[in-house]
Each structure stands twice: as structure tokens, then as C-alpha cells.
Amino acid sequence: MGQEIEIQIPWLRYDVTLPLIQGRVKIEGVRLVPSRAAPGGTVLAPDSPLRRGDFGLVDLNMANWLPAMEAGWDLIGLPVFPKRKHLYTYLFCRADAGIETPKDIEGRRVLGAITSSAVATWLRALLEGCHGVDLDSITWVSPREQWPVHGTRWKVEAFAPKKDIVDVLLDGDADATLLDISDRRLFERLENDARFRRVLPDYLGAARRVTLPGGGYLPVHMLAMSRRLDRAHPELAGKLVAAFEQAKTLAYEDILDDRSGYGVIDLRERFIAQMRDWGDPFPYGLKANRATLDAFTARSFEYGTIARAPEYREVFAASTLES
Q1: For the segment 13-41, what is each residue's pLDDT rounded down to a tens digit?
Q2: Which in 22, 24, 92, 143 has the greatest CB count within 10 A?
Q3: What span, in angstroms and rounded, lies between the C-alpha atoms of 20 and 31?
Q4: What is the DSSP letter of 26?
Q5: Model confidence, pTM
């Protein structure tokens, strides 16, 4: 690649990416610069640097990936998925709402954005595909929409008061929620307050029974890079994917190395059991994720977050297409 290029990357806190932040993974001709000020990929302002391609790498909520590219934003996807979740974790309802099973959500008011949330996209797919829920019967109470919603399938009520999820449920504005929850205190209230309950109390067991491609541990974030950078250095994306793969391998070795200390008791043994039961829970590359990505793209089109389903060569960097 000639002269070394400098690329700003977000301060990725995931254990599978930490070796990159620590500088333990080297890329020939590239110097990665971790930054806490790098652009975020969850809430995207209209003047975001991602629109102009004025960034290096971004940790992108997958729900923003296809709509942003369709809108002409100057970014391109990398098949690196450092954040996956058991989605049933986020499916709560008010305890007095009479919701005992997922089917009972039909005809109710449910808090959840149509666009901008991979958790909401996947949960709709799970409710519809695994539990036979009629999504069209639900009134979706939407706190925000970052992207246009194509088509007229959904009954949506705009909702932007200064309330958190707890108050929205308690005040009767919605009967259930499938929003992502990152606030620890909100999680504690929903899990420990008798006024709320999970729609699927055995949410981890239910996740293991999911029949959607990819199972119940589905990607919600992915890495994307500046398309301007990809045009200038078309081989770079492939090198970055290889570097993230190497970082993940080092992270796994760290967990298995008993010279390290962790806050999770018996983490090493849990990790060994997890690999035995699941295989690699964080597969990268297009080949290992094709079925999951096909499902996500199809649902994004079906749910109106994109106007058409693109081909991989349109939304992934060219040097990653054989990964």
C-alpha cells in the first residue's frame, strides 16, 4: 500500500475487538488510531460525518446500514459483527396487560421504532416467524424514526415525550416494548418491579429454540468504513476484516489463559461450554453469515426500512466479498 495510512476507529469496548484497541494486532501499511470521539453509529444526525464519508471506521447499528446506503451516504459495510444479542431479552410488557404469550401482543400498542433499531427488526422477525404473531394488527408506538418508512403496512403513532420505557408502560401509552435497553437502571426496574414481566420468562431457553437463520444469537452491530477510503485503498477492507478476525482469536485465547483475571466466575469454563454448544458465536465474513444477512435484508425490505433489497456487491466492500 506504499506509505502508511492512518485510520481513526471507534473505541470498541467489546472483548472480541479489544486486542485491536490495545495495539496487539498489526496491519501492514496501516496505523489504527482508536478514538473516543469517533462518530457513533446508532443515532445518526443529518450532518453526520458518515454521510460525507469523513471518517475511518464506525460501529454501526445494522438497522442504519442499508437505509444509509440507499440514501447515498458515503459508507460501505464490512462483514464484521462484534455485537450480537439474545433478542428476547428486550421483550417486556406491563404485568396487568393480559399478555401471557407472544400471540397476546396482537392488537396491542407496542413501543418500538420501525427503522434505526436492529433489535426491533429482529424481534419483529422472531414474533412473526417463530410465534405466528400478526404484526399488522399491532399499533407501533414509535419514539423516533431516523429513516423513511416505505409503504403503508404499519399502524404507527409518533411518540416523543420525555418519558423512559418504564413510564411509557406504566402510563398505558404502550402495553409492551421491544426496544433495545442499554441503561442498567432501566433494566433493573423492568426485571425486578412486579408491575412488569417478560413476555417470555425463559428468554434464554426460547432463544435456543429459534429457527430463523443464525439462531437466537443474532448480530445487531457491524463495522462499516468510509466509502471514500475504500475507493482510495480498495484492498484495505479485506485487510481490516483479517485484522478483526485475528483480534477475535486473541480475545478467545485471553479468556482461555488462566494467567488472566476476570470478573465473571468460571468464565473460562463457561466459554469452553459455549464453544462446544454453539461453535464460534461471533462468526465474521460473508460465507459464515450469508443466511443471517439474507434474512435481515429480506426483513428490512418487507418491513419497509429500504425500498429494495440490494445485492452484496452494492453494500459490502469489494475486497470482502470472498470472505
Answers
A1: 899 999 999 999 999 999 999 999 999 99
A2: 92
A3: 11
A4: -
A5: 0.94
